[in-house]
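Onboarding guide, step 5: your first structure request.
Type a short instruction followed by the sequence, for example:

Predict the 3D structure of this protein.
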Amino acid sequence: MAQAVEEWYKQMPIITRSYLTAAVITTVGCSLEIISPYQLYLNPKLVVQQWEIWRLITNFLYFRRMDLDFLFHMFFLARYCKLLEENSFRGRTADFFYMLLFGATTLTGIVLLDSI
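The system replies with structure tokens like these:
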């Protein structure tokens, strides 16, 4: 069984694997109380006034508690990102990365503009 999970993980495209790994590490870190969720959420005032730039990225990596809901989030993230990266963006890994970056930038920009 462990071999099957390892093979599944190794066969995953690089951007999907990186995003899934970062999301799991961030959520596990919060569950083990290594880091606080209050250090991760997007707070426009802290980003602008205290230059806590990491909040622009970490808000896309934290999925609350380690429970059934988290497992469903990771399943859908892995499944649909993998499908997109292997089919729609086949051979264009950089385009897939820029699509994710554009979506994250747009969502973050809306939040930052709304807070002014």
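Each response can be followed by summary notes, for example: The mean pLDDT is 91.
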